[in-house]
């Protein structure tokens, strides 16, 4: 189900910097329909999509897989990486191969990253660690575990610290192991919203794609905003945003299909995931 107010369309926006280019020039007030934008961490947006309180927007890839039957994927929108992502990082006291059966502290802010870690630990490294949930504070996490998974801006800030820990980029490890890219977040729309509000949904998608194009044509404003808000250097943020992929095409789909297959094999997700694009759905409707 979508949001209960038929006159209002609710859009979910990831607050992490990695999603900024898709939202940076997006102005909901400029649209013809009434659009309310909710900005939060992925876990909150995931819940909102699952409970039908959000009609359209960003959510963790894993969370999408859990409720894929009720959603349509939006084409050409994702947060992906074909190699290191620089914001999904595992910090450890010793090299990774020595903690595959140890204790790892994770946060509850993104299911995609936590389950990627579980897939890599089990299938790539043949380990079976214990996972504990801890607030995203590196010092506190390392007091109670052998390694700590941080994501988003918490991971970025921790990567700048001189803590003497080993740092493993999970996206890079996934790419080295599988040869595929990794998609951490997707954009999707509830099927009923797509059917009942096609004009509004089309307008939102077009505006998001336009924001992405404008952002990627000149990253300077976003780079300066990141420096002002979070810190770091111009060189760091320029490289960070240029390294990310904001498309969702064949290569991203192949990597995500493999991710879901492993998640299903390990029992992390209860069903096999079939991904359907919103664009495909609209073409079917036109034919009918």
From TrEMBL:
Belongs to the MqnA/MqnD family. MqnA subfamily. It holds the Pfam family VitK2_biosynth. InterPro entries: Menaquinone_biosynth, MqnA. Catalyzes the dehydration of chorismate into 3-[(1-carboxyvinyl)oxy]benzoate, a step in the biosynthesis of menaquinone (MK, vitamin K2). It comes from Paenibacillus crassostreae. PANTHER family: CHORISMATE DEHYDRATASE. Keywords: Lyase, Menaquinone biosynthesis. Its EC number is 4.2.1.151. GO terms for biological process: menaquinone biosynthetic process. Pathway: Quinol/quinone metabolism; menaquinone biosynthesis. GO terms for molecular function: hydro-lyase activity. HAMAP family: MqnA. It comes from the Bacteria. This is Chorismate dehydratase. It catalyses: chorismate = 3-[(1-carboxyvinyl)-oxy]benzoate + H2O.
């Amino acid at each position: 189900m979508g949001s209960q107010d038929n006159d209002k369309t609710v859009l979910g926006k990831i607050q992490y910097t990695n999603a900024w280019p898709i939202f940076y020039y997006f102005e909901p007030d400029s649209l013809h329909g009434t659009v309310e934008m909710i900005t939060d961490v992925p876990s909150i947006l995931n819940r909102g999509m699952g409970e039908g309180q959000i009609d359209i927007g960003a959510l963790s890839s894993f969370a999408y897989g859990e409720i894929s039957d009720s959603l349509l994927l939006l084409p050409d929108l994702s947060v992906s990486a074909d190699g290191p992502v620089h914001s999904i990082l595992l910090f450890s006291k010793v090299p990774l191969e020595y903690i595959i059966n140890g204790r790892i502290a994770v946060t509850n802010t993104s299911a995609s990253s936590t389950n990627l870690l579980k897939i890599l630990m089990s299938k790539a490294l043949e380990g079976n660690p214990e996972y504990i949930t801890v607030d995203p504070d590196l010092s506190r996490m390392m007091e109670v575990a052998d390694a700590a998974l941080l994501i988003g801006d918490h991971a970025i800030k921790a990567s700048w610290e001189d803590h003497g820990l080993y740092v493993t980029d999970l996206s890079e490890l996934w790419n080295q192991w599988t040869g595929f890219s990794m998609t951490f977040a997707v954009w999707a729309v509830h099927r009923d919203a797509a059917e009942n509000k096609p004009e509004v949904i089309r307008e939102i998608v077009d505006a998001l794609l336009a924001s992405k194009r404008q952002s990627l044509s000149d990253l300077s404003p976003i780079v300066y905003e990141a420096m002002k808000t979070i810190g770091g250097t111009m060189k760091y943020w320029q490289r960070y945003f240029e390294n990310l992929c904001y498309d969702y095409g064949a290569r991203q789909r192949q990597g995500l299909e493999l991710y879901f297959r492993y998640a299903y094999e390990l029992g992390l997700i209860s069903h096999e995931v079939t991904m359907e694009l919103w664009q495909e759905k609209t073409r079917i409707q036109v034919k009918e």
